[in-house]
Write a structure and sequence with these properties.
The protein is mainly alpha-helical. The chain contains seven helices and six strands; from the N terminus they run αααααβααβββββ. It is elongated, with a radius of gyration of 35 Å.
């Protein structure tokens, strides 16, 4: 009996974890059907449809099993295999008994949260994106799609940059939460408009090409500086 004790403990532990894990995944999948670019009931239609699909799947599975009771053996085998995988103990670092459950739960939560998130967009990046997708205002969902970030990350970036967002605005004739055109930050100045080089009095401008001859007119004479012959000058009276 003592030899079977570890296996029985693992199955019991896995069975206890399996139900909550499946429920969390089902809820998370249903919530992903929410539409950020819509308001009211239309925004929740995707979530409702996914929840209905889950309920329909459970109902159809129950009907199939009831019609063919032999399928219970297959379901029982799949359930035992899933419980066995879920009940796998983690490596015990502290050496204490019972310390194998907490690391596994923490690992499951970390896996659901996903990898480390990228830094929030800067105010300059938000300004450039807003001006690119404006029509004439910008929906928060459209901005998130353009930046390739979740909507909550974009809202956090807008708040950090001090850009008002969240009111009902029209983009392409469709109303939704977003940013008004009047609240867009100005674009950062470009490098255009640099000052022209100063030309000394009596010399011709040489901005077109560094290899062009330079003409200097003085009283009673004209001197032509040829770049190809740096040691020679052509003097014209």
């Amino acid at each position: 009996m003592n030899r079977l004790r570890p296996a029985a403990d693992r199955l019991a532990r896995g069975t206890g974890r399996l139900g909550p894990a499946l429920a969390r995944r089902a809820v998370a999948w249903a919530r992903r059907g929410h539409r950020e670019d819509l308001t009211g009931l239309a925004a929740h239609l995707g979530t409702i449809a996914r929840a209905a699909l889950i309920a329909l799947g459970v109902y159809l599975l129950a009907r199939v099993v009831r019609a063919s009771p032999a399928l219970m053996w297959a379901l029982a085998g799949a359930g035992l295999a899933a419980a066995w995988r879920s009940g796998r103990p983690a490596a015990v670092e502290s050496g204490e008994k019972g310390a194998d459950e907490t690391p596994v739960e923490g690992a499951e939560e970390a896996g659901e949260e996903g990898p480390a998130q990228a830094p929030l967009p800067t105010r300059e990046e938000l300004a450039a994106a807003l001006h690119e997708v404006a029509d004439p205002n910008v929906h928060t969902a459209a901005l998130a799609t353009h930046l390739g970030l979740p909507a909550e990350r974009v809202r956090a970036a807008l708040k950090a940059a001090g850009i008002p967002a969240g009111g009902q605005v029209r983009m392409g004739g469709v109303p939704s939460t977003g940013i008004k055109a009047g609240d867009f930050p100005p674009l950062s100045p470009s490098g255009e408009g640099a000052p022209e080089p100063v030309v000394v009095a009596g010399q011709a401008s040489n901005n077109d090409s560094n290899n062009a001859p330079r003409v200097v007119t003085r009283e009673g004479m004209t001197i032509i500086h040829d770049p190809a012959e740096t040691h020679r000058h052509h003097r014209v009276a």
